[in-house]
Amino acid sequence: MSIRYLTARLAQQIDEELMSTAGAFSLDQLMELAGLACAQAVATVYPLSKNNSGTSNEKVLVCCGPGNQGGDGLVAARHLSMFGYKPTVFMPKAGSKEIYQRLQKQTENLSIPSLTTVSQLQDGLKDTDLILDAIFGFSFSGPVRPPFDEVLTLISKSKLPVVSVDIPSGWDVEQGPVQREVANTDGKKVEEVLMPDVLISLTAPKAGVRGYKGRHFLGGRFVPWSMQEKYELNLPQYQGFDQIVELPRAERNDNEQSQKL
Amino acid sequence: MSIRYLTARLAQQIDEELMSTAGAFSLDQLMELAGLACAQAVATVYPLSKNNSGTSNEKVLVCCGPGNQGGDGLVAARHLSMFGYKPTVFMPKAGSKEIYQRLQKQTENLSIPSLTTVSQLQDGLKDTDLILDAIFGFSFSGPVRPPFDEVLTLISKSKLPVVSVDIPSGWDVEQGPVQREVANTDGKKVEEVLMPDVLISLTAPKAGVRGYKGRHFLGGRFVPWSMQEKYELNLPQYQGFDQIVELPRAERNDNEQSQKL
Fold it and tell me: Which NCBIfam families match (chains A, B) (predicted)?
């Protein structure tokens, strides 16, 4: 049985059920485990390694949106710091929920620098090894509004390695990559889409990433067996006590393969 | 610099600081990471392995006290279930805080059996491979009150492998093993002390476990660098993105070695 790719609506439903009285999870719990999984995916693909010019992969620019995805990013930034990385948080719009203030305070307590303006982001992009994209999650629906339109363009243009959380920012949750028309330096209009090198899906992958070609991990090892069955998620088996599992290529290209047949 | 063994008072102070407005952690967050570390310590020392008679190490009886330590146990039981173990929770006194009800509900959602009476515990001990002792933590001060006196005796007499969380239950947090006088089957008084095979200290080890001889892990990879320095914790380096680290024998026997010199 192949893994199930969720519609935006089903992803929302599972999320709500987990945090309902019946599911009994708190946002704090789920975000902690999700953010930890994101940090572990980064550390798996881009391990720290010392060399003559310093430590490679050390600097991670964690770009956070204003919703729960941004919260996952803040948690990931904290764990990356604990793992020995040097994360920087870029969060142009502070989340409104009280939890974001606590999560931000936790990153401050680790002396993780925080950027808020696009101009700071431009400087930040010149001084990072990779990017963790925690801008938009499964509740995103376009179009991309300012300042995030400019943010996505800057990230794409940076040519830096990008790890996206759950859904690459700007993609449609169900339809996948969406070309956005942006002006290049000459003022000409060009089509652009953020194409991450690594993706970490949370709970279960979303329909929009079915054709995704990069390395693809799954995190969020907390979905009760009964919910996995009820929604026929067919999640792959995590190994040992791992919090992430890499999805095999066959799973990733389900759609393509069936189109070829 | 050797790792610091905490007094009960300092352990309390660090815990409060982490959850203060300044530390900004929620109990949900810390308990989630602590419980995950406990489950990982169990899975490290007692990995699941299939053999002719079934799967060894599969059944884990998680004994939970009424305080935060019991909460760590409930989280550990949940993660153990996600790892493929078959945990059972024994919790004779339900914790009063709202969080315990949520954590218990989460274990119910995974169909983890729950025992509450000493008689059920006696049956449970006959049908388990190992025990996770999450009864008393760093805020314990003796004597051991009913029903936990009987519970500790039953656990000791079971001769099953025991993994203790933070401080072996019944031990003095600072002084270590405390012999308790109990009646054996003949009615004779004998001295007894719970001696776990594995210990997982959380945040930092407590003074009472300094002479502990079994395998000793540290978990709780969330203490900010500034707090580690302020309290001169000298924590060992966790590897990669591990959530636990095993303490070397040299660290464990600090006290003994200095006595021998």
Answer: yjeF_nterm
Among A43, A110, A238, select the one facing B241 at the smallest CB separation.
Answer: A43
Q: Looking at beta carbons, which residues of chain A come within 8 Å of B26?
A: 28, 102
Q: Which of A14, A29, A103, A238 to mutate to test the interface with B (most CBs of B within 10 A)?
A: A29
Please give the model's pTM, rounded to 2 decimal places. Answer: 0.94
Integer Cα distance of B173 and B9 in angstroms: 10
DSSP state of B257: H
d(C-alpha A109, C-alpha B169), whole Å: 33
Q: In this predicted structure, what is the pLDDT of residue B249?
A: 65
Nearest CA-CA partner of B73 in B90, B93, B48 = B90
Test mutation, B40, B74, B241, B244, chain A, max A CBs within 10 A: B241
The answer to whether A71 is annotated as binding is yes
What does the pLDDT look like over B183-211, one tens digit per residue? 877 888 888 899 999 999 999 999 999 99
CA-only gyration radius of chain B, Å:
18
Residue A95 among known ligand-binding residues: no
Number of other residues whose CB lies within 10 A of the CB of residue A222: 24
What CA–CA distance (Å, rounded) separates B261 from B251?
15
Domain spans, chain B: 8-47+54-260
What is the token pair recorded at B58? 């599969």
- Say how far residue A113 (Cα) sits from the centre of its chain: 20
Rg (alpha carbons) of chain A, rounded to whole number: 18
> B8-47+54-260 adopts what CATH topology?
Rossmann fold (3.40.50)
Residue B120, H or E segment: helix B118-126
Q: Which CATH number does the domain A8-46+55-260 belong to among 3.40.50.10260, 3.40.50.720, 3.40.50.1970, 3.30.450.20?
A: 3.40.50.10260
ipTM computed for the complex: 0.93
Q: What contacts B134, CB < 8 A, 6 or more positions away? A: B38, B62, B63, B64, B65, B69, B70, B72, B73, B76, B165
| SS3 call for A15 | helix
> Which tens digits make up the pLDDT trace of B124-143?
999 999 999 999 999 999 89
Round to whole Å and give the CA distance between B5 and B11: 9
Using the beta-carbon criterion (under 8 Å), do B22 and A109 form an inter-chain contact?
Answer: yes
Neighbours of B114 (CB within 10 A): 17
Distance CA B65, CA B169 (A): 9
Question: Are the C-beta atoms of residues B151 and B121 closer than 8 Å to each other?
Answer: yes
